[in-house]
């Protein structure tokens, strides 16, 4: 037996496993990064992809809208790079008075002044204000048309009143759109609630009872209707420039891409896949995964990222042990409601179709995964909180292993995922 340590909340837990059964530890691929964050940022701005430099795109007197992520994406360290983007605009003749920061809240809540200051960073907080997009404010939306998928493209009026729209953010694997960053700053970022829900509803197959759409998933863009729909919506807007960062497992900006909002994003996705896309030869009988501790496992809502990635490494009917403290509980009422208010997957799907939201979908998706696996959650959640979803809650990793061995036997070929929220296992063909 060998002891392994994995992060859980603000601590580490020990796991004792038979080395003969360990198929591997799925971690991000090592990358050579000798540049500072400042060097990474400036290098991207100096070498835009399929685009002139930002300072050469803009002109004096033009109005500029910089779309930034909201506080739920504070890990992107926007304060580290936004002032360099402003410097580029100033260099191109644009004055501070002609620059507006619009937070791509999507369907999220409004933010406080303190949160806005965090987003802008110390160098910009006293120079600019942030406007929160409101997806329900019909008066502040402009209708541009419909995508080929039938999604109404309704975009923030302030953004559409500017001469240039600049997209910022970070690129990671995304459970529905394939990849975060890029066009997601437009839809869902600064789109109407109706636009967002119509787009995200394609996460389900068309027919009732057919469940989640396998084409809408992490790392997939070809034939992914959510990705393609978002791209069509962004084409109505025609952003002038993109700047997206890529983070390492320690939360540092390790790479960045800038330029054409499609081509630069594609290159960023390739880099993320190179770092966090981990090839495996076969799926395991059991996977033990952690998000990487606090704050990534602060609530059940955040746990979905680990669940989605871990599922790719384990066989159907295999064991998933997820270490997620969930010190703040569910973190989202719609998730709790769709798990606790229905006794079957079919009833949950019906309720989701009647009144779709991304939070409800996450709750539904987790129960769908639990239908096909022995799902054991090491957490502070009360066992009854998710028992309706066939999720078994235990307090310790030892209890989780005992349960797994009791149900499935001790000879379980196993993967460990110490960075489960980031690393995406890819089965070699």
Q: Layout of SSEs?
A:
Layout: E1 2-8, E2 11-17, E3 22-25, H1 37-46, H2 54-57, E4 64-68, H3 82-91, E5 99-103, H4 113-120, H5 122-125, E6 130-132, E7 141-146, E8 152-156, H6 157-160, E9 164-170, E10 173-174, E11 178-179, H7 193-200, H8 225-237, E12 241-247, E13 253-259, H9 263-276, E14 277-280, E15 284-290, H10 300-311, E16 314-323, H11 333-340, H12 345-354, H13 358-371, E17 374-378, H14 383-386, E18 391-394, H15 397-408, E19 414-417, E20 424-427
Parallel strand pairs: 3-19, 4-5, 4-9, 5-6, 9-12, 14-20, 15-16, 15-19, 16-17, 17-18
Antiparallel strand pairs: 1-2, 7-8, 10-11, 12-13
Protein name: Nickel-dependent lactate racemase
Domain Lactate racemase C-terminal: 282-421
Domain LarA-like N-terminal: 8-209
Describe the structure.
By secondary structure, the protein is α/β, with parallel strands linked by helices. It has 2 domains: 2-29 and 281-427, Alpha-Beta Complex (2-enoyl-CoA Hydratase, Chain A, domain 1); 37-275, Rossmann fold (3-Layer(aba) Sandwich), CATH 3.40.50. The protein is 31% helix and 24% strand. The protein has 15 helices and 20 strands. It has helices at residues 37-46, 54-57, 82-91, 113-120, 122-125, 157-160, 193-200, 225-237, 263-276, 300-311, 333-340, 345-354, 358-371, 383-386, 397-408; strands spanning 2-8, 11-17, 22-25, 64-68, 99-103, 130-132, 141-146, 152-156, 164-170, 173-174, 178-179, 241-247, 253-259, 277-280, 284-290, 314-323, 374-378, 391-394, 414-417, 424-427. It has a 6-stranded parallel beta sheet, with helices on both faces. α10 packs across α13, α11 (333-340) packs across α13 and α12 (345-354) packs antiparallel against α13. The longest helix is centred in the middle third of the chain and has 14 residues, at 263-276. The two termini are 32 Å apart. The mean pLDDT is 92. This is Nickel-dependent lactate racemase. Residues 282-421 form the Lactate racemase C-terminal domain. GO terms for molecular function: lactate racemase activity.
């Amino acid at each position: 037996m060998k002891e392994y340590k994995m992060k859980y909340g603000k601590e580490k837990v020990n796991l004792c496993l038979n080395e003969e059964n360990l198929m591997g530890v799925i971690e991000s691929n090592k990358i050579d990064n000798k540049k500072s964050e400042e060097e990474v940022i400036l290098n991207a701005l100096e070498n835009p992809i399929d685009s002139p430099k930002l300072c050469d795109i803009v002109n004096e007197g033009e109005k500029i809208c910089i779309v930034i992520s909201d506080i739920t994406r504070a890990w992107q360290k926007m304060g580290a790079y936004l002032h360099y983007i402003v410097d580029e605009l100033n260099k191109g003749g644009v004055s501070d008075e002609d620059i507006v920061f619009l937070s791509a809240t999507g369907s999220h809540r409004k933010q406080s002044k303190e949160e806005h200051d965090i987003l802008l960073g110390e160098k910009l907080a006293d120079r600019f204000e942030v406007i929160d997009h409101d997806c329900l404010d019909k008066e502040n939306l402009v209708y541009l048309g419909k995508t080929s998928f039938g999604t109404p493209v309704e975009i923030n009026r302030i953004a559409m009143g500017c001469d240039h729209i600049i997209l910022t953010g970070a690129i990671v694997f995304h459970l529905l759109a394939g990849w975060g960053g890029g066009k997601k700053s437009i839809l869902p970022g600064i789109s109407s609630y109706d636009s967002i829900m119509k787009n995200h509803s394609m996460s389900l197959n068309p027919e009732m009872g057919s469940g989640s759409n396998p084409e809408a998933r992490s790392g997939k863009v070809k034939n992914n209707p959510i990705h393609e729909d978002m791209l069509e919506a962004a084409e109505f807007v025609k952003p002038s420039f993109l700047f997206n960062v890529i983070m390492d497992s320690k939360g540092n900006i390790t790479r960045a891409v800038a330029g054409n909002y499609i081509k630069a994003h594609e290159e960023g996705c390739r880099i993320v896949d190179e770092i966090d896309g981990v090839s495996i030869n076969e799926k395991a009988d059991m996977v033990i995964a952690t998000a990487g501790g606090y704050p990534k496992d602060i609530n059940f809502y955040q746990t979905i990222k680990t669940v989605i990635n871990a599922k790719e490494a384990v066989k159907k009917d295999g064991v998933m042990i997820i270490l997620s403290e969930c010190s703040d509980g569910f973190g989202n009422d719609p998730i709790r409601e769709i798990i606790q208010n229905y006794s079957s997957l079919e009833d949950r799907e019906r309720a989701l179709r009647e009144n779709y939201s991304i939070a409800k979908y996450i709750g539904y998706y987790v129960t769908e995964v639990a239908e096909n696996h022995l799902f054991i959650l090491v957490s502070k959640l009360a066992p009854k909180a998710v028992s309706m979803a066939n999720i078994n809650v235990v307090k310790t990793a030892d209890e989780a292993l005992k349960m797994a061995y009791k149900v499935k036997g001790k000879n379980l070929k196993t993967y460990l995922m110490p960075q489960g929220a980031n690393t995406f296992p890819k089965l070699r063909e």
